[in-house]
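User: what does the whole thing look like in 3D?
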Amino acid sequence: MAYYRPYHPPADPALVRTLTQQQHDMRQQQRLEPLTASPKLIAGLDSSFPTEDTILSVIVVLTFPELQLVEKVYNYGPVDMPYVPGFLSFREAPNLLLAYEKLQHRPDVLMVDGHGYAHPRRMGIAAHIGVLLDMPSLGVAKQVLTGQHPEPEAAPGSRAPLTDKKTGELIGEVLRTKDRVKPVFVSPGHRLDQATATELAWRCTRGYKLPEPTRLADHWAEQFKKEIR
DNA sequence: GCGACAG
DNA sequence: ATCTTGTCGC
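Assistant: Here's the predicted 3D structure for the full assembly of 229 residues, as structure tokens:
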């Protein structure tokens, strides 16, 4: 069905060089380790674009493992950075951080819409935000950015490894959250490991393709969009 | 040189 | 991400 593949306008080489260096620097701060205590509150982060030059970032906070919504906030602002594959965080993270400041609750983990470690330089938006806030984070993406993987089994809960084609390193896991639906890509961002990331994503799944944190953030973005005008 | 390319 | 019609299945 994908007869056409998206075309991405060439990005400014100088800008790409700067951002790449910034990601390498941030990676020095990244730590992937087992999560010590079970989280009590988990947040879901997602952004949408009402117009081509404005961004709407939403953050929802749910209890864990009950997954009851306890808070939802958003921040609406301008966007200057264009979308460049591999540098999504520089376009969305700033506004997400502004939304985070409005939060009254202190979540224990952040589930971000996009990749974490499963990134060319292991610094996807989930890792980017986790490092900046120095908080445990994981990424849940709907499409692969880099890496190869076999198809996970049909049964919900099935996993398949996402590996770097060159090094063979495990960079994420493909998780089948729903029967007969394309799987999601889970990877750690900061302060937690792959096993924890996948387990959390699965324990947050309630019959939909997307885990509740990310799914609800996306859902509320639609509601807040009306509130804006 | 030829593809691939989160949201 | 966003736009956008019809269609399939529970």
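In plain terms: The radius of gyration of chain A is 17 Å. The mean pLDDT of chain A is 96.
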